[in-house]
Amino acid sequence: MPRLSFRYKLLFAMMLVVGGVSGVTLFLTQQRVQAAYEKLFEDKLEEQLTHVPREQELRIGEIKKECARFAGLRRIFAALEERDVEQLYLTAQDELRVILGSDEVSTNAGFQLPPPAALPEKPAPMPAGPGGKLRPALKDAARKAIAGKQARAPRVPYLGFLDADGKVLEAPELGRFLTADRRFFLDRITRFGKVIGHLQEQQVGYLELRNGRITEIIVTPVRDDEKLVGAVVYGIPFFDVAADATERAISEITDIESGTLLEGKLYTHTIPEVVRVELTRRLTDEITTHTQAREDLLISIHGIPHRIFYTALNEGSRLPIAYKIGLYSWETALQAQADLRSQILGFSAVAMFIALLVSLLLAHGLSVPIRELVGGTEQISKGNFKVQVPVRGRDDMGQLAQSFNEMAADLALKEKYHSILHTIADKDVAQQLLDGKIALGGELRETTVMFCDIRGFTALTQNMNPTEVIALLNEHMTVLTKIVTEHHGVVDKFIGDSIMALFGAPKSYGNDALNAVRCAQRMMAERAKLNETSRYHLQIGIGLASGQVLAGNMGSADRSNYTVLGERVNLAARLCSVAARGEIVLGPATREQLGDLITVEQMDPLQLKGFSDSVVAFKLVEVRTEPQTVAQPA
Question: What CA–CA distances, in Å, run from 251 to 217, 300, 317, 572?
């Protein structure tokens, strides 16, 4: 592939920038337009979703409570157990006056029966025999009182009863008083029979009762402890194709065409006839696949996109589930996006042409300085940090040339810093700092921390001059630092006459606790050898603690040090302070990690500063190469 000159690269870059900006502008504008329409749709959807449960609660909330109370009556349980239909309906007349909305037995029970004037204003309670059963004589009297009156025209609501097997309880003596609508209601609720035995609580369902009418059904199981004897079925009108009010009003206010989907059939006053069949088919497939409505559901009906929402009116019910459906045209939103897209693409074409002309002019003036900078970078790559390029002006290219010269000088200086850094910091820490792997901040690491301190240092050096003290410390620290490095440790810092070393940070070698203990033992041995040849005879104590610490490059953005913080650091320092001359004291976590690889002597519990509880520590006796083998008894 031929190498492109800077001029063509600049031209390509300008086109790419203009194209990218245009694309981003187009994308963001479309997103904003879509978001605006989405917000409008969500607001309207929220109105619907909050309206549906609120309206349902207002409509049937009290009815459900009354039906539950009614089903809990002992005499209802007894009547269902005896299949005493007359008693069930008479009790319903007495107990459900409020929600049935009439004093007429006929209307509430599903029969054409006499007006209130022919019956007592309120039936007197009927004495029951043992077990809550009506006496036969009173039952006959009730049947005659009901059957001997003149019928009237039926009204809603509907009421029926199912036995424990799901069969409808009918009264043959009163069958002639049933209207066609009431008889159809009782026939339809037989389909609930197969789920009656599974009902643990009151549930709501929906049924179509001919002529496009939906009835909202409340089924309340009748139980005594765990025994099911039947159910009370209460039905009230929910939707009528001949009705006119709520859905049309909602459509006019919110622009949402709504309806009710029940068992693959759509009931609506507002959705046009021409789209109902297709919409019903699409919605049925969608609900089968996604029981919870998707926020991005977009369906094209007769070429017009529509946003759809649906929500179950009786979600989780074992009875037939009805869905409230909302249909909102998305044609206006898509058209607005198309118009904006055309305008932005037109402006982008003009901008790209202007950018082409400008980039050609700029490329000519930039070629020479760029070639000089390329030559300078080649010298830098060869290690020649003394290279300088001409500064041809005060414009951006002149500033770039000046910056390049300063960069070359900085690189020369940093090369000197690189060599110096290895002399003042541990080589592992220095390399990770140079590689940028240690940033300002920290991380949790599993580490063993060591503190090594000279015993009696103050008394030893109080009469020495500063030069002699520095010489003593340099000799001591040089030997011990070398030992730490040999055991894969890192010297964190020198604190007066103490050394703080890390094993496991910034890099772990897998056996950090063992390396730390072996390092401590070797430091004791080397200090003893040094005492034989050195003019300075020193005794040291060492403390080690293992566990999680916060490790990282800490300080300010201008000056920082790699170190560790945490309770384990404090514990190691405290254990070092209690270690006697020539002793190595281990914390409990270090002892536990090493197991049979070491021999220790447990110390009395220690009360250490900064620790509320006493600490169990161990004196190191021996470090073994292999774990100790326990002899098996003969």
Answer: 26, 20, 28, 76
